[in-house]
Amino acid sequence: MKSLIRVVGAGVLALSACTIFAAEKVTLGVAIPTATHGFTGGIVWWANQAKKDLEKAHPGLKIIVKTAGSAPEQANQLQDLLTVNKINALVIFPFESASLTKPVAQVKGKGVYVTVVDRGLTDTSAQDAYVAGDNTAFGKLPAEYLAKRLNGKGNIVMLRGMPTTLDNERYNAFMGVMKQHPDIKVLDAKYGNWNRDDAFKVTQDYLTRFKQIDAVWAADDDMAVGVLKAIDQAKRTDIKEVFGGAGAKGMVKTILDGKDKRIQADVSYSPKFIYDAIKLTAEARLKGEKLPATTIIPSVLITKENAKQFYFPDSPF
Amino acid sequence: MQPERTESPNVSRRWRTALSGLGPILGLIALCIAGTLLNPDFATVDNLMNVLTRTAFIGIIAVGMTFVIMSGGIDLSVGSMAALIAGSMILFMNSLGAGGHPATLVVALGMGLSLVLGAAFGCAHGLLITKGRVEPFIVTLGTLGIFRAFLTWFADGGALTLDGELSDRYSPVYYASLLGVPIPVWIFAAVAVAGGVLLNRTAFGRHVQAIGSNEQVARYAAIRVDLVKVLTYMLLGLCVGIATLLYVPRLGSASPTTGLLWELEAIAAVVVGGTALKGGEGRLVGTVVGAILLSVISNILNLTSIISVYLNAAVQGGVIIVVAFLQRGRR
Amino acid sequence: MSLSVQFEDLTKDFGPVRVLHGVSFELAPGKVYGLLGENGAGKSTLMKILAGYEAASAGEVRIDGEARRFDSSRQAETAGIVLIHQEFNLAEHLTIAQNIFLGHEKKKGWLLDDAAMRAEAARNLQLVGLQADPDTPVRQLIVAEKQLVEIAKALSRHARLLIMDEPTATLTPGETQRLFALIARLKAEGVTIVYISHKLDEVERVTDEVVVMRDGRFVARAATAEVDRRQMANLMVGRDVSDMFPDKQPPAPDAPSALKVSGLTVPGWAEDLSFEVREGEILGFAGLVGAGRTEAFEAVIGLRPRTAGRIELAGQPVDLRNPRQAMRHGITYLSEDRKGKGLHVDLGLRDNLTLMVLERYAQPWLRLDRERDALAHAVAEFGIRTGDHASKARMLSGGNQQKLALAKFLHPDPRVIVLDEPTRGVDVGAKRDIYFLIRRLAAEGRAVIVISSELIELIGLCHRVAVMRAGHLQATLGLERLTEEELIAHATGTH
Lengths: 317, 331, 495
Hints:
Chain A is an alpha/beta fold. Chain A has two domains: 160 residues, Response regulator (Rossmann fold), CATH 3.40.50.2300; 133 residues, Response regulator (Rossmann fold), CATH 3.40.50. Chain A contains ten helices and twelve strands. In chain A, helix 8 links the parallel strand 8 and strand 9. Chain C has two domains: 233 residues, P-loop containing nucleotide triphosphate hydrolases (Rossmann fold), CATH 3.40.50.300; 236 residues, P-loop containing nucleotide triphosphate hydrolases (Rossmann fold), CATH 3.40.50.300. The two termini of chain C are 44 Å apart. Chains B and C meet through helix 1, helix 8, helix 9 and helix 10 of B and helix 1, helix 10, helix 11 and helix 14 of C. Chain C: This is Sugar ABC transporter ATP-binding protein. Chain C: Keywords: ATP-binding, Cell membrane, Membrane, Nucleotide-binding, Repeat, Sugar transport, Translocase, Transport.
């Protein structure tokens, strides 16, 4: 019943849109994961922000945002977007690379312009454009920064996210830099699942195991929160630096205010790139243009000096 | 028409029953020996307290879960319930704190809210299951989604964070120690002892067991089956409330990952501890040992790096199956 | 077609307990044997060995002179030996036809031949006299019907030796008649039949020879015509069962009413049912299976909804909405389904005994020592035979389980107790114990209601018997009219 209303509603909308704005009409579907942690929470917020801003600015544009809790659900949503909403452009943050390549290719085969965000598909011919954060810089910048702060000597422990290609890219980039600093020992790297509680537990055990730690690469701002709490609890003073990642609101604020001397820097990997991707795609399509095949939204080192421009108090992330 | 076996009870079976009760404890001892050999830091008081403290959440919930499973029910929603309670507490305390109330009072009220919400959610489960006659699996699978969705909505997908002063005032509840033992461990111990007494030494506990063993017989034996069932879910909700009021001061925040998969860990602790999933039989000591066992496994994995991190889950799964094997009953 | 069996020094041990001590006897082909013995005498174990469900520890079984050892019931069935279980082996969610052919499905190529199976199932159902569609799921059947399905299932295996373990325990007189006709017919076809029953009158009617076992040993065999019931019972018990029933002591003429039910209506089961029982009185309830006796009393104690009716206990009107209220007002009900509704077989004896009135032992913590004392007391008082007070109820024999169940439902000290089939599946000795117990309860001033399908029991025990048919009370017979003929006539509506 509900879906029927939606179909009729979409039909009416499409009809009215046709009569009033006969030309240059773009129906853009946005498929993203549901908000399950800070980062995806930010993705959802920025996607809805883009819908609000862009639909206001361009009357001929309609944006439909769908969030999925799993890869199969996202694949189903693609079908719905195509057949029910009759989209002609798609921005997708794939839940998984491999299992969504075929469904996206099908959508593209129906003439829809496809922009893939963040996670590349296994077959790049299934996409028209690729917009992504810079995962290499996400690992490289903290490595360089920490190496400098430790003067090329010391012990580092690190946390990883979940076993994904994205995590591997960051990890490899970090370790690549560390190869050039033989006096820095990376003691261990365990998964903290991008979540505060698991990071807390893993850090507690690191602290039990290693008597001298100079820096922690938490690899995520949520995980950094858990790391700091665990260090506080153990009352350990040997850790001089904790480096998170992604530039979450709270972390950027800490840097801005100089609240915690262990937190001096962060690396940007803002969920805002979904906003950028939607904006770029929508505006290009409204003009009938194409995007460059690959757009990398650069990751930047955030320090006290430039923190202000990365602080978005309204975003949940 | 059963063969008469009552005259001299089957000695070997006796032995096996006794041994099977020891399964989880033997497993735990073996793990502890292995842990000490792999890393001498394992056997330190600090590490012990770390493990026990982090077991507290799951352990407290598992105590409540033992009652529910013993009575033949199940609750899949505990992790989500903890998350929603944590979020609600934080919102409630922040708004009271902003109103200028004294921080200690606000924290006390927040803790009270956590218990009330837990009991209320549990009561709702119980009523839906008994009066509404919906399978417990379905009811709690539904609320599993509902609770977490509401938290995510409250938090806009991000994290809810307790305001500074409140957080400082509240944090001793998790971080402080009494006689060298952290508060959560004391509370865990108290809940476990209270649960043991309730299960083994009260009419309520016996009724729970009777219902799980055979609900029909219990009904004919003049037990108020529905009431007892509702009470088990309320008790579990209360345990979730206690676990949550200990959890919130740890990070001072709640996010959509709060309490993720706690339900599976709690159920695993109960079952590894020797309680039958179909109900009727169980031990509270086993549950406590089971909960500690589960956190010891991940503690040992964190303290060593002999196994690829990719295989951590496999080790956990393997240990669980081995322990279950040690304590398997007849057939 | 026929088949002869010889047991040679057969021994069976369960762990350290020996349940069969070198049993030897033989069964000639084409005869009907009554296998007698108290619970625990070893009859069932012996038959399970014959039918491949258990393996003997020593000794051998010869079939037609050839030593055989069956590793599974399937092998035994191939040899033509089929056991009809006392406890049913039916898959509740499958249909009658599916159950009958379970494990022996007829196939057409790769696919099941449902039509053929349904047709044959229907034929067998007709033979055993069950009027039911072969597609009915078994869970919808009542106990007696399930028993008939078990028999139909055995028929479909084309048995040459058929073992029936208490086949009539749940059957009505009419169904029992039909079963006897079937036995006669099978015998005429040359099938050997072993008939295990506690009902000696049936054994007397249907068998050619009786074999008596006691304490895991063969005791005696005799042509049925040469022994009377009394002798059979004496052989089984090993002592003289002088009299099964205690003498009747009528309640005092001025005994007050204990329970009065007027106009009770239970939707689908009973209509406008009225009766009264006085203190010290034993009131029987007779009727066919499905007559609504069980359901009426379940409604009285609040386990089933009632749409009309007034209940008075000791002259006070009461509204009993659940068994707990009923118990508080002094009435308890022991179900006919001992393992499904009466006892927690997986719990200990103590837990079972005190379950209904645990609050008596909670102050507020349970006093396990007092519970243990109560159990010791009950074991002595009710003559429960158990070696180990800490064992589970499952370990007790049927008769002792029933005594424990009686102790449990008497533990709240009810003024009115309803006993539904109190001696079902119970051996002669235990039966007698239970009769004397009931008599004692009445002498103590309690009102006892006995629902039973065994007419001899009702006649021997009760002061009055109410007969129900299809949900209606047909008649209440006083001592002077209490005969089998009267009871059957009212129960079947042929009065």
